[in-house]
Amino acid sequence: MISPDQLRSKYLDFFKAKGHAVISGKSLLPENDPTVLFTTAGMHPLVPYLLGEPHPAGSRLVDYQKCVRTGDIDEVGDPSHLTCFEMLGNWSLGDYFKRESIAYSWEFLTSEQWLALDPAKLSVTVFAGDQNAPRDDESAARWRELGVPEDRVAYLPASDNWWAAGPTGPCGPDTEIFYWTGPGLPPAGSNKGTDSANWMEIWNNVFMEYNRVDEHTLVKLPMQNVDTGMGLERTIAVLNGAASVYLTDSFKPILDAIGTVAGVTYGSDPARDTSMRIVADHVRSATMILGDQRGPSPGNVGAGYVLRRLIRRAVRHGRKLGIEQAFLGTPAAVVVDLLSGAYPELKDNRTRIMDELAREEAKFLETLQKGEHEFEKMLPNLLKNPQKVMSGRLAFKLYDTYGFPIELTLELAAENGLSVNRDEFDDAFRKHQELSRAGAEQTFKGGLADQSEAATAYHTATHLLHKALRMVLGDHVAQKGSNITTERLRFDFSHPAPMTPEEIKRVEDIVNEQIKRDLPVTMRMMPLEEAKATGAMALFGEKYEAVVKVYSVGDFSMEVCGGPHVERTGSMGRFVIQKEQSSSAGVRRIRAVLER
C-alpha cells in the first residue's frame, strides 16, 4: 500500500535525482488571468515559461499542484470523477525532449526502486498525425525501444493525442500511458485504441512544440518543451488495487465521517453511495477553495458561484442521506487533517473554512425552508388541476427565485400525487444557463494571462496602483487579487473603509505622474529573502520559489512578480479610476482604465 504523501515524495525525489528543481504549486485562483476561474491543470501557472520566458528555478522543474475542474460536475458521483484533484507534474523548458521524457516516465512507473508497476499491464497512445502536424513516430519508436510491444502502442487522432491550453496558445502532440484495470493480464492486441473500458490513463506527456495563433495557424515555439501530468488520486487507486478513487486513503476517511453523521455505511446501497461520493468530493473541493491563499467566498458570480454550487449540492445530497441538520464542518475537518501536510494553507485558514461553510450551509437550509413554504402556498391550486401536473414554469420559479432545487420540487410533488413538466423546466433552465454561462462557466480558454500590448500595460499599471494606494492609504494595503483584460484592470486590496473622492484623485495623480516620467521597467532575479530585505512587495500568502523575479519601475516601486511588463511607463496612457467599491469584508475593489 502507498499513501498520497508517499507518492508525492517519491515523485519529487525521482525528478530531483534527474536534475529537476522542486517548485511550489500555485493558488487555485489564477492571478491576472480573466480567461479561467480556477487553475485547471498543473501547467497552467507555467504557461509564460512554456512560451519562452525564463523561469527563476531553471529549465527542469517538478511540483504537485491542486486543480479544480467543474465542467463535468454532473458526472461526479460515479467511482472516478472529481472536481478537485492533485496533479504531479514535471517540465522541460527547452531542455530535454521526447526521448528523455518517455524514459523518465517508464523508469518511474516500472522500476523496483520507484512504483514497480507490471510493464505487461501498461499500454501507450501516440499522435496519429493530421493535416496540421506529422505522425509522432519518434515517440512510438522510443516506447518500443523500452520494451512496449507493438500491439500496446496505439496511434490515435488529435481528439485523443493532441493537447492544447485552449483555442490559442501552446500545444503539441502527446503520448498517454494507461494501466490495465481488467482481470488478469490484458489479452494480446488490447490497448486504449481497441478497449477503452479496462484501460485507465495515469500519465500524459505533452510535447509542446507549437503555438496556435488562430484556428488555422500553428507556428513552432522558440524552444521544444515537455509538460507532463500524473493524476495523484487515479495513480493511488492503481497502485493499491482499488476499483475506485473513493476506495483509497484520499477519500475513505471523508466517507467514514459522512457515514457517521448520516448513520449509514458506504458500500451498503448504490443510491446512497452515489450521494456519499458527491458529498465527499464537493466538501473536499469547497474546503480546498476556501482554504486557498486567494480563496473566494460563496457568491453569485465567477469562482464564488462555483463554490456556492458545490456547497449547496453537498447539502442537498446530505438530505438524501437523511441529514437534516448542518453537518459539512465534520467532513471538512477531516479534509483539513488529510491535506494540510501537503497544503499548509488549509491549517492556516481552518477557521475561515469552517465559518464560511457554516454560513453558507445555514443560508441554504433557510432557502430550502422558504422554498418548501412557497410550494405549500402553490399546492391548493396545483391539486385543482385535473391532470395533477405542475408546470415547468412554476418549478423553475422556485429554482430561480428561491434557489429551490428541482430534485426537491419533484419529491414534494410526488408526495402530493403530482408530477412536474420536466421538459418545460429543462427548457427554462437551459435558457437560464445560456444567459449566465459567461459569468459562471468553468472553461480553459487560454491557460495564460493575456500577453498582448494592452494587457501588459494594465499589468504594469497594477504595480503602480498598488504602490500609490499604500502611499495614500497606508502600509496595511495589500493586494488581494486582480483581473486584467485588454480593456481594463480590476484590483482588490485590503482596506477597511470606502476611499474618499480626494483619496481616489490623489492615487490617480500619483500613478499618472509615474507614467509621465516614462520610467524604465527592469527585472532582476534574486533569492526571495533578499528580495524581501530590499523592500520588494510580495503577495501575502502567495507561494514563491527560492529564487524570484523582482520588477522595478524606476525608483517608484519594486515587486515580486512573474510578468509581463512594459519596457517604459510612458507608453501606457492616462490612468483613470472608474469605480471604487466593496469586494468583501475588509476588501475594496478598484476598476480602472488606461486612456490612450
Question: Would you mind describing this structure in some detail?
Answer:
The chain is α+β, with helices and mostly antiparallel strands and 596 residues long. It has three domains: 4-245, 2-Layer Sandwich (BirA Bifunctional Protein, domain 2), CATH 3.30.930.10; 252-440; 453-595, Threonyl-trna Synthetase, Chain A, domain 2 (Threonyl-tRNA Synthetase, Chain A, domain 2, 2-Layer Sandwich). Helices cover 40% and strands 22% of the residues. The chain is built from 18 helices and 18 strands. The chain has helices at residues 4-17, 47-50, 98-110, 137-145, 158-161, 232-239, 252-262, 270-290, 302-320, 329-339, 345-348, 350-384, 392-402, 406-415, 422-440, 453-473, 501-516, 528-533, and strands at residues 21-22, 60-68, 84-93, 122-127, 153-156, 162-164, 169-180, 199-214, 217-231, 389-390, 419-420, 479-484, 489-494, 521-527, 547-553, 557-560, 574-584, 587-595. Strands 1, 2, 3, 4, 5, 6, 7, 8 and 9 form a nine-stranded mixed sheet that branches. Helix 3 packs parallel to helix 4 (137-145). The longest helix is centred in the middle third of the chain and has 35 residues, at 350-384. The protein is globular, with a radius of gyration of 26 Å. Residues 437-449 have low confidence and may be disordered.
